[in-house]
């Protein structure tokens, strides 16, 4: 079982830069797909016969759960939907509901202490933490009924090997991601993602019972938009630019930037479909691209329009604090990515400066891009074990 990953865990604790206080973006998509997932559970999930529910618990797992409230809310929602599924089967099912076991999985270094302190005292399920990479086996064979993973599968198990080799055509000089990079870099990322996903689906196929369900929310790329122009592309270009500014000032060495790459890949929908079909163990029950804009309809927005991709009716105005929005957006990125920068650059002061410069670039961009619309999507996948 793989225990090490190049992807650092989300920031733990409850501080200003913690993931628990800065996971609004992730919550958007979880809120957006809640009703869709409940609907599919009602229509497609297989449940056990009433004679067996008292002896065999119904098991749920959140892979890449992190530390914030999002996983707790999601697991509660799905458990309630599964209860309704049982009740809808008739009197025999509704009178004998199963016991529920929820497994919260993330990397070994994840802040499980903060996570478990946030669990409700009156929860109606047994809870356990499972530490380890989901690019490897986590559970016994045929032991899991429902798997959920939200905004986690785009993190790679490793930086692609080609990017570590100075003599490779994929040596990513002056950049930290495949955004705006040569084709060789993009191909290296794509190939490694496909390899990780093949392992992921092979292992989940062993662990999930026949008829069990897997729900995945994955940040994705749009085939019709250059990768450098979506939200992630803009973010990584700004990060690389901030680092190169620091190189020019002698704060960090250029070699440090050249050897640093974020292990994250946002696939196109056709890439995900291809890897699922190649694996052959899961049937696609639902596959849908989601715009972040949809999650913000009818509520105040607190991240910049050029990042959140809000509908045209939402525009900046004199009462809308663009600077504050850019600061908030930087904080969400810091909560998710700071560990990767700290591992590589070491100094806390350097990391502080990186994200301060990033905030300034976001402020400048949000002003220059007012009124434009750039698209970012996440992909909702509902899969059923054959």
Describe the structure.
Keywords: Methyltransferase, Transferase. This is S-adenosyl-L-methionine:salicylic acid carboxyl methyltransferase. The chain is of the alpha/beta class and 386 residues long. The chain has a domain at 24-224 and 262-301 and 373-385: 3-Layer(aba) Sandwich (Rossmann fold), CATH 3.40.50. 42% of the residues lie in helices and 15% in strands. It is built from twelve helices and seven strands. Strands 3-2-1-4-5-7-6 form a seven-stranded mixed β-sheet, with helices on both faces. Strand 2, helix 4 and strand 3 form a beta-alpha-beta unit. Helix 11 runs antiparallel to helix 12. It is globular. Residues 293-321 and 368-374 have low confidence and may be disordered.
Provide a short characterization of the protein structure.
By secondary structure, the chain is an alpha/beta fold.
Determine the structural class based on helices, strands and strand pairing: alpha/beta
Strand fraction: 15-25%
In whole angstroms, the N-to-C terminal distance is 25 Å
Corresponding CATH superfamily of the domain at 24-224 and 262-301 and 373-385: Vaccinia Virus protein VP39
Largest sheet: 7 strands, mixed
CATH topology name of the domain at 24-224 and 262-301 and 373-385, in short, is: Rossmann fold
Q: SSE order in H/E notation? A: HEHHEHEEHEHHHEHHHHE
CATH C-level class of the domain at 24-224 and 262-301 and 373-385 is: Alpha Beta
The total count of helices amounts to 12
Q: Per CATH, which architecture of the domain at 24-224 and 262-301 and 373-385?
A: 3-Layer(aba) Sandwich
Low-confidence runs of at least 5 consecutive residues? 293-321, 368-374
Helix content: 40-55%
Mean pLDDT: 84
> Strand tally, please?
7
């Amino acid at each position: 079982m793989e225990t090490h990953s190049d992807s650092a865990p989300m920031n733990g604790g409850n501080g200003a830069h913690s993931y628990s206080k800065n996971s609004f973006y992730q919550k958007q998509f979880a809120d957006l797909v809640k009703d869709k997932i409940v609907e599919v559970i009602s229509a497609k999930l297989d449940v056990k016969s009433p004679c067996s529910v008292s002896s065999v618990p119904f098991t749920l797992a959140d892979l890449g759960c992190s530390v914030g409230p999002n996983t707790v809310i999601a697991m509660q929602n799905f458990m309630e939907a599964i209860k309704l599924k049982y009740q809808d089967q008739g009197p025999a099912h509704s009178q004998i509901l199963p016991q529920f076991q929820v497994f919260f999985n993330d990397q070994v270094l994840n802040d499980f202490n903060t996570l478990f302190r946030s669990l409700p005292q009156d929860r109606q399920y047994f809870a356990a933490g499972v530490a380890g990479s989901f690019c490897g086996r986590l559970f016994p064979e045929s032991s899991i009924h429902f798997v959920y993973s939200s905004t986690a599968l785009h993190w790679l198990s490793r930086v692609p090997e080609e990017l570590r080799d100075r003599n490779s055509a994929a040596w990513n000089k002056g950049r930290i991601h495949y955004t705006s990079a040569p084709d060789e870099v993009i191909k290296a990322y794509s190939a490694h993602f496909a390899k990780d996903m093949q392992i992921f689906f092979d292992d989940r196929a062993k662990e999930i019972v026949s008829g069990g369900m897997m729900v995945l929310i994955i940040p994705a790329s749009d085939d019709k938009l250059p990768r450098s122009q979506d939200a992630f592309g803009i973010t990584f270009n700004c990060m690389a630019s901030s680092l190169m500014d620091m190189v020019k000032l002698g704060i960090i060495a250029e070699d440090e930037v050249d050897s640093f790459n974020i292990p994250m890949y946002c696939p196109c929908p056709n890439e995900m479909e291809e890897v699922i079909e190649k694996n052959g163990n899961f049937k696609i029950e639902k596959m849908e691209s989601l715009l972040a804009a949809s999650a913000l309809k009818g509520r105040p927005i607190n991240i910049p329009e050029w990042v959140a991709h809000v509908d045209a009716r939402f525009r900046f105005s004199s009462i809308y604090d663009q600077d504050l929005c850019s600061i908030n957006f930087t904080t969400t990125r810091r909560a998710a990515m700071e560990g990767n920068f700290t591992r590589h650059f070491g100094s806390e002061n350097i990391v502080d400066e990186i994200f301060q410069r990033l905030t300034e670039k976001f402020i400048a961009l949000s002003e220059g891009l007012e009124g434009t619309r750039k698209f970012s999507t996440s992909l909702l996948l509902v899969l059923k074990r054959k």
